[in-house]
Design a protein that fits this description.
The complex is a heterodimer of chains A (300) and B (350). Chain A is mainly alpha-helical. Chain A has helices at 21-56, 62-66, 81-113, 117-130, 134-149, 154-179, 182-190, 195-223, 227-232, 251-259, 264-295. Chain B has 350 residues and is an alpha/beta fold. Chain B folds into two domains: 5-117 and 272-278 and 292-348, Periplasmic binding protein-like II (D-Maltodextrin-Binding Protein, domain 2), CATH 3.40.190.10; 119-258, D-Maltodextrin-Binding Protein, domain 2. Chain B has eleven helices and twelve strands. The chains are: A mainly alpha (300), B alpha/beta (350). Chains A and B meet through helix 3, helix 8 and helix 11 of A and helix 1, strand 1, helix 2, strand 2 and helix 7 of B.
Chain lengths: 300, 350
């Protein structure tokens, strides 16, 4: 802190009190406008959350999470256990398939491929794939896997979701790797580490928080997919822990199925499933935040 | 700066969830002989139109025989038939007959009629109930030739009813649907006035509103004063829509009820392959717009256990299952057709 000398120039007044009328009106106006925009942006989110919670909360009970799904639309009462297990198992398997491949692919792109034609080609293709409608991935797996093995299975759904997640994981991870300062790589090389050690020991840990949140965003998106699941996974009312044995189901598929019936019982069930799905995605997000902050490189 | 080598593994496995891999116990040596309960798992997929009835029947059947797990996935008639062709399901549900490029090969399947249901013509016109529409007027309303409710053509069959000058809004299915197919097929067969053709999707007049599935059309009708649309009986009843009485082949105006539907099945001519056309069937009491639905059985099941399971479940649908049809807004088969269906089932799966 420097003390001001008496008689020296007075510090500029930054409080905005003596702004001209025009500027203060513009300032107020802009502030109100921005605040309004935030409110408008938040409004649909708040309404969706309120709708889903107010309509779905009544379905929740212990049985809701354990019981099998009622076979009849008109049978009131709980049961979404198989869909919860299916959502977790199928998206979990999809994550297991796509995240390692995606992260290592991004390492290639950013650390090895850089601007080689192959790397640029993969980068462009990944960008294109991010924009492909999810049903395309479903149909691709339907033709390439489901018809070949002759059965709809949970694993088929996991494959479709993995295809959907892969480009997202690749692109978000690459962006994160690009943010790692080159000085870190140079310091690591300067200490005698080989390239693979630099990547594994310095670059990836430095980017880990960003990679984690990027990957979990992809997981959250996959968890809510309906179209590819309906094409590849089929339907079940009972617990199917084995993804390779027979048809399965997920929360998103159950929302679609139950919401399209006119009966109050099935519509309540759809709202309950929607709330459950939002809760699961919310949990994912919190976990990703915790992991990201835990592994963040700080205190430089 | 703190670097931890393990973080990379944390990164790689983050998001991957614990997954238990337990083998499902499935199957037994039960061969499905009379008196013994078959077990295992059978899956069907197809038409969404009879989904509510099949779902109810599956639940009721699970109480009779909990060891046989039956799944019916309402993916639509077209998808159900192509999945049948690919061997992805054990039976398919379909509202329409199999055409050459649908998937199943000729001779590889057998139609089994299960239930039927009326397609209602529902409308939203406060204060006007029991509207009567003749077939030509119905066609003209849906193709946009009649645009107001007080049109003389409507008034002609509704003496004593005060019709408002509200504009007519046609509500239709936005998705390809068997309901659209049966409704337009009826108009096409019934009257020369109809010019839009028939099929899962047709080009509706400008200004009409599309709704997703029956539920969506029902919603459009509820929300739009002056709207008219075609909706299945379950949705119309559950959403408390007002239905119109439609002129049948004998010139009587009939409300869409299950009795009038079964009457239409009685009047319909059944072909050798058990397919039948109940649209505009003869009889004073028959409702003219009735949609049939079938189950496709394979003539050649590879797995005997699956064959026994399918046979037992379809047998249940055709016998005890018929009793719960009415509760779910579906009309049971008349006795004659039911016997034919059972005979075909026993012949197809020995």
């Amino acid at each position: 802190m420097t003390t001001l000398q008496s008689g020296g120039p007075t510090p500029p007044d930054l409080s905005g009190r003596n702004l001209s009328l025009r500027r203060s009106i513009a300032d107020r106006g802009a502030t109100v406008l921005i605040g309004l925009c935030v409110l408008i942006a938040a409004l649909p989110l708040a309404l969706v959350a309120w709708q889903v919670v107010s309509r779905g909360a009544s379905s929740w009970s212990l049985d809701w999470f354990i019981e099998e799904i009622p076979r009849n639309y008109r049978t009131a009462g709980p049961g979404m256990g198989p869909a919860i297990l299916g959502t977790l198992a199928i998206t979990g398997m999809a994550a297991l398939l796509s995240i390692p491949i995606g992260v290592l692919g991004a390492v290639y792109l950013n650390e090895y491929g850089k601007n080689k034609p192959l790397a640029r080609f993969i980068r462009t293709m990944a960008d294109v794939m991010t924009g492909v409608p999810s049903i395309m991935m479903g149909l691709f797996i339907y033709v390439g896997y489901v018809i070949v093995i002759g059965d709809k299975t949970g694993f088929g759904g996991a494959l479709a979701l993995a295809c959907l997640m892969l480009p997202i994981v690749i692109r978000s991870t690459e962006e994160m790797l690009r943010l790692v300062p080159d000085e870190l790589r140079q310091a690591s090389s300067g200490l005698g580490a080989r390239k693979w050690r630099t990547v594994m020991g310095v670059v990836l840990p430095a980017a880990s928080s960003g990679i984690t949140s990027g990957s979990l965003l992809a997981v959250a998106r996959a968890a809510g997919e309906t179209a590819p699941i309906i094409v590849t996974v089929g339907l079940t009312y009972v617990y199917k822990p084995d993804l390779f044995d027979g048809q399965n189901t997920t929360l998103a598929a159950q929302i679609f199925r139950n919401a399209s019936q006119p009966f109050a019982a099935s519509q309540d069930r759809a709202w309950g499933a929607a709330l459950t799905l939002i809760a699961i995605v919310f949990l994912f997000t919190i976990v990703s935040r915790i992991i990201a902050s835990r592994f963040a490189i700080d205190k430089r | 700066m703190k670097l931890n080598r393990r973080t990379i593994f944390g990164t790689l496995t983050a998001g991957a969830l614990a997954m238990s891999m337990a083998a499902c116990g499935g199957g037994s040596d039960d061969n499905g002989a009379d008196g013994e309960m078959v077990s295992g798992e059978i899956t069907g997929s197809g038409a969404s139109f009879p989904d509510a009835f099949y779902a109810a029947a599956i639940e009721a059947y699970a109480e009779v025989n909990p060891d046989l797990i039956v799944t019916y996935n309402a993916v639509g008639s077209g998808t159900g038939k192509s999945e049948f062709g690919e061997g992805l399901n054990d039976f398919a549900g379909s509202d329409s007959l199999v055409k050459d490029d649908d998937g199943p090969e000729a001779g590889s399947f057998q139609y089994i009629p299960t239930v039927a249901a009326p397609i209602t013509v529902s409308y939203n016109l406060p204060g006007v109930e029991g509207l009567q529409l003749d077939q030509e007027t119905l066609a003209n309303i849906f193709q946009g030739a009649i645009t107001a409710w007080n049109d003389p053509a409507i008034a002609a069959t509704n003496e004593g009813v005060t019709l408002p000058d509200t504009a007519i809004t046609v509500a239709h299915r936005s998705d390809g649907s068997g309901t659209t197919s049966n409704f337009t097929k009826f108009l096409d067969e019934a009257t020369d006035a109809w010019t839009l053709g028939s099929g899962d999707e047709v080009t509706w007049p400008e200004g009409s509103i599309g709704g997703e599935k029956n539920t969506g059309v029902a919603q459009v009708i509820t929300q739009t004063e002056g709207a008219i649309g075609y909706v299945d009986l379950a949705d119309a009843t559950e959403t408390k829509l007002v239905t119109a009485a439609i002129e049948n082949a004998d010139g009587a105006f009939i409300q869409p009820t299950l009795e009038a539907t079964t009457a239409a099945l009685d009047g319909a001519e059944v072909a050798d392959d058990l397919s039948y056309n109940p649209l505009n069937a003869a009889g004073a009491e028959t409702y003219p717009i009735v949609a049939p639905t079938y189950i496709l059985l394979r003539t050649d099941y590879e797995d005997e256990e699956v064959a026994a399971g399918v046979k037992e479940f379809v047998n249940y649908l055709l016998t005890d299952g018929q009793d719960i049809a009415t509760d779910n807004y579906f009309a049971p088969l008349p006795a004659g057709l039911q016997e034919q269906a059972l005979a075909a089932l026993n012949e197809t799966i020995a």
